[in-house]
Amino acid sequence: MATLREVKKSIRSVASTKRITGAMEMVAAAKLRRAQQRVEEARPFAEKMAQMLSHLASAAQGDIVHPYFEEREIKKRTLVVVVSDRGLCGSYNSNVIRRASKWLKKHSDVATEVVLVGKKAHDFFSRRDYQIVGTWRDWEGVLKYDKAKEIVKFLTDRFISGETDEITLMYTKFLSTVKYELTTETYLPIASPESGHDNEGESTVADYIFEPDAESIYSALMPGYATTRMVTALAESFASEHGSRMIAMNAATTNAGDMMKALTLEFNKARQAQITKELLEVVSGAEALNA
Amino acid sequence: MFRLSIVTPEKVFFEADIKSLVVPGTEGYLGVLSNHAPLITALKPGRIEFRDADENVVLMAVSGGFLEVSNNVATVLADTVERSDDIDIDRAQAAYDREQSRLVSAGDDDTSIDLPTVRAAIERAKNRIKVYKETH
Asked: B59 has which bridge partners?
């Protein structure tokens, strides 16, 4: 059995770990609230934009020509992986990274390159044999528009200049604090928007007036649309990260509590054993004198 | 009366029934009343003006975006938008001076600044100052 001192030491160490995980849980909860709010506030804009795009597509007869729609023969694929900068968020990062590696393996028929968001992705991919063309890290768990726009500019430039023919975005969709969904979607080329007959039979094929004309509205709208999609994906990912961290830290705090209980029990047992031993020694010493 | 909703990437900025609306289209200012024909247009930096249900005129500065009108619903997708009362005139003026001096100090073949970006920033700052001055 461990000595009293040893047990006491491990109790202290578990207690301080518990304090840290408890604090981290609280911080994650606060950040999650903000991130979640961000996701919810950003949704209407994304929805309205998609709606406008589909109205535009259905009203503008004929094919719309825009570089973002261009589907080429795929000679090179780009995968954008969005994970967190920091660890201690359960299996969140490893889940995404595992999925990303699988994806890269599966699509190895043509050359692939990766664009990384989050330090954890960089830590993983830079040690292995992948072609990394861009890394954005140090987000501190907060969505920054300027940084998101940089990524969008980088990706769209790469796509338009023909350096890559397809860009896939891998992130996690935030469903609830305890649930997120690994999502893989094609970022570019953008699938030509559905002509809007699908929304509840509402006749959207109204005769829209375009100012100045559909073409120029398209070219003004598309960059915004690309940005919105990136911002949405990042916001969802960050919210998932904070959710995961909160859950992981909550579990850690609970575990630390259980451990402390077990250790305290052991401590008390050891203490009692020592007292019993001392009593025995005193009594047997007295007996020896009496004899 | 028709519904106006102004949405920015950050939030739903404004949503209510209004009586009339004037926005800065790329081809010039245009007005929208109830039962307007379906319309989609891009917006340039300028001022959004509308009359709400109580006949109050509200002024806002918008930095660009889009307007869609259909079925008596007007949706403005704005990059950024501010009520004229919320404009920080000192900040707008500072931004204007800063960008202007960058433009002046940069030579013709200076590639360190992105001219269209600086011009757009000047345009936005000018617009905010203008909208602010109209109500103050």
From this structure: B49
